Amino acid sequence: MPDQPARFASLVQASAQKSGAKYPTWHEDHQPAEPYIFSGMEPQQSSDTSIAPVATARPSVAHRRSLAVALVIGLVVGGGGVGAVWALSDGSSGTGPTASGPAADARAACDALDGFDESKYDVEGPEGDIALNHWGAAGALSAAAAAGDARYKLLAQAIRRSQDHHAQAFKFNDDVKKELAEARRICEGL
């Protein structure tokens, strides 16, 4: 039966050579080649802290090219679908809150102006807030309509002038009332 300490020493030495750790070498008489003092606080791993870089897999050129082609095809098909829907709608069809386009904006501006009661503009609370927001919405929607179609420019100008006169006088004087009447007259003709 082979000598157990010698067999253990050869296993430790072989393991040390594989891992690069430094362990004492053994002579035939089982004596260390150099003095070795064992400490219970020795590191269990080698002190070499360098880590070999990990090779990252880069996608092949063919893979990147096919990804780019798929992206371009998706954009073309998606853009074509949106373009077809846009081309088939004239922008002024439909009524109600989901309608779009300059004509719908002008109708919504007139609806907001119909809901505007200037006598409640200075009232504190919800009634005053409603009046303020109806007048502001009429101005914004008429401006959007005029930006999309020049036929609604006069409506936008009349509402804008009424707001400008009110901002100068801080009351609903004759100039403000005249411009509001003009805007309402234009709305009747739509």
Structure notes:
The protein has 190 residues and is an all-alpha fold. It has helices spanning 4-19, 61-88, 102-114, 126-148, 153-169, 174-188. The chain is elongated, with a radius of gyration of 43 Å. The mean pLDDT is 77.
Helix-and-strand structural type: mainly alpha
| Low-confidence blocks of residues | none
Distance between the termini: 113 Å
Major pleated sheet: none
Number of strands: 0
- Radius of gyration, in angstroms, nearest whole number: 43 Å
Helix content: 55-70%
Mean pLDDT: 77
State the shape.
elongated
How are the SSEs ordered, and which strands pair?
Elements lengths: L3 H16 L41 H28 L13 H13 L11 H23 L4 H17 L4 H15 L2
Question: In brief, what are we looking at here?
Answer:
Helices cover 59% and strands 0% of the residues. The protein is mainly α.
Key traits:
single chain, 190 residues, mainly alpha, 59% helix, 0% strand
